[in-house]
Fold this protein.
Amino acid sequence: MKFIKAIITAIGVMIMGMFGGQKNKGTRRFGIPTFAVLMAWLSGRFKWKHLAFLLMIPVLVMGYGQDSFLAQYLPDFLCRIVYGMLLSIPFIFFGIKRWLCAFISLPIAFSIRAGSLGFVSWFGDILVEDIIRYGVLGLNIVLN
């Protein structure tokens, strides 16, 4: 049962990240951290440190696109790397090894640029880069 909840969490985070990039930004900004806390609670392993996922909200609100706060001060490539590093902050509460895993994997995932797998009218573009970025974020959430 834990394995099924882990798969649901990882895929749910990935879909919210993809949907937030194409349609409603609030889905990504507030949905991912809230969903992470909710799934930790539903899995029966909730601890107070899981509330650290809510620290992702300011980083997700800040964004990494061309109109973002970071893009004003950094070139695009560095902006994405710094954004990935900032997203790893909540993982410090789960231990140094888990934070280091997130600190390495998230900047790599967010620096990847890829194409589209197609367009779905009610969803938008299915971007490979969003699948990778938010899939890696979802896996890091599942591992904690």
User: Anything to note?
Assistant: The first helix runs from residue 2 to 22. The first strand starts at residue 116 and ends at 120.
